[in-house]
Amino acid sequence: MEIDAFYTFTIAVILLLTGKIATLNAPLLRKYSIPEPVVGGFLCTAVVALSYTLLDRQITFDLAMRDFLLLLFFAGIGLKAEVKMLLAGGRPLVILLSLAVVLMLIQNFAGMGMASLFGLEAKAGLMVGSISLTGGIGTTLAWAPTFTERLGITNAMELGVAANTVGLIAACMIGGPVAAFLMKRHNVAATDDPELAIGVSNDGRQPKLDYFCILWAVLALNLAIILGLGIHDALTRTGLNLPAFVSCLMAGILIRNLMPIAVSSRVQRLWPGVDDGLTLVSDLALGLFLTMALMGLQLWQLNGVFTFVASALVVQIILAVIFTISIVFRFMGKDYEAVVISAGFGGIALGSTATAIANMTAVTQQYGAAHRAFIVVPLVCGFFIDIVNALIISAFVG
């Protein structure tokens, strides 16, 4: 049974509402900063899996809107990024990228070791390493044919998709608890800055919004996406293939910082809630994107490779958590910004850029804003890490 795009989007809205209501009424979910989309998304994933297992009926969703929502979200991130924030993020960005590179190497060696332990070709373990975990589903789909045709690993696609599925689920769950642990363990104080980059605070503060705030925000987001897609097309023509959301992030930054000061000041003066409008629309886009991503998971695909993938992912998750707590938090400054970045690092290591941002959003909704984290992590996830990961994978395959 295939559910079309309109009904899929409507179901995603219902599931996100369910997650929001559950989070507002469950102190345990707020304490560990479990992202709201995860609650409703997992509920849908469980229902779909039970339908397949018990009723032998496969439910699939038309996820055509999902990718656009991701573009919308990253355009919003760019539109709220000022040059001074980017400059402040320079050194942390280099440090975080270096740490991500180290973890990718660890993931690949761990994956190959687990594959050898299970009597598989060692390089099959790369499919449960940085390819599927740090790289995500896009990198998995791109590299699987190479492993099948060149290395003779016929189930490479199944291994990668299964590992990505388990990794995505784990990434959604570990960010908040890691942040709570670090704040308690190191007595890190929450910030009193109410101006969240994404999301609405859990403490009841309401943004000042009106008709024009939302309308200006929607216009700015659409212009950023149009410019971003143009940049993406231009880069593709040069042979540089980067995710489209990176181009939309860049476009948002350009619009924010190159817009004439007179125009920007006038809009801010007449409608001071424009940034709140961007925050709200971006938050909705991210929530719906992650909800739809979880709706699309097909857990029965783990059948046949479950034991190996589950064992390998247990090792990878433990390594990611230990690395985050003992290395990432320390090197990123041991402050509140470092806590938020650490919450997002689980998404970098095991899930996707959207998962990283969702984890950070959940933490900042609970404890306050962390502006630098929302610039550094998306740039590392979306712009640099795919390039570096491709080089690392090529070296291991060779």
Written account of the structure:
One of its GO terms (cellular component) is plasma membrane. The protein has 398 residues and is mostly helical. The protein has one domain (66-280, 293-397). 74% of the residues lie in helices and 1% in strands. Helix 4 runs antiparallel to helix 12 (274-295). The longest helix is centred in the middle third of the chain and has 30 residues, at 156-185. The protein is globular. 51% of the residues are buried.
In terms of topology, how is this protein built?
Blueprint lengths: L1 E2 L1 H21 L1 H5 L4 H20 L4 E2 L2 H16 L3 H6 L1 H28 L18 H14 L6 H30 L25 H27 L6 H15 L2 H10 L3 H22 L10 H26 L4 H15 L2 H15 L5 H25 L1
Parallel strand pairs: 1-2
Helix pairs in contact: 1-3, 1-12, 3-12, 4-9, 4-10, 4-12, 6-13, 6-16, 7-8, 8-13, 8-14, 8-15, 9-10, 9-12, 12-15, 13-14, 14-15, 14-16, 15-16
Membrane topology: Multi-pass membrane protein
GO molecular function, one term: glutamate:sodium symporter activity
Subcellular location: Cell inner membrane
